Amino acid sequence: IELFYDIDLNNTGIISRREMREFLVAEGYTPQESDRVIKMFDLNKSGQITLDEWLAALEVTRDDIGKRKDEEIVLHEKCSVISSDIHVRHQRKIVDMTLRIMDNNKEMKDSAKELKQALDKRFSRLWQVVIVKGQYWAFYSHEPKYSFV
Length: 149
Hints:
Helix content is 48%, strand content 4%. The longest helix is centred in the middle third of the chain and has 17 residues, at 88-104. It has helices at 2-7, 17-26, 31-41, 51-57, 62-65, 88-104, 108-123; strands at 14-16, 48-50. Strands 1-2 form a two-stranded antiparallel ribbon.
């Protein structure tokens, strides 16, 4: 299931044909092989792969995978997740990117700029990046399934 969320770059809960093909080609599949794999997973031939189709193609049920969303997950000792509704796999990638970028920059403003550019490129979304030291208050809005604070 983590691979599903890895391929679903925009975190919609649906893998587009483009997302799946780009992933497979990057993994070394030919375009023809990619098309065959996509057909295996796109059970209703809609051009999109839902999580239910993904699980059905793998002959796995939701009960088999458990309820991971309710688990408490520690991403890194230097990181506290205040609120998030994106998959933990994406959270881990964001934390790894953040720590790597902050280690490479002396100025927090440079880290924020580089992190925003990296997130926009990796997840194809508009990101707001705020790096804070100490106590703070924040009010923000976001689309459902695109929050990571």
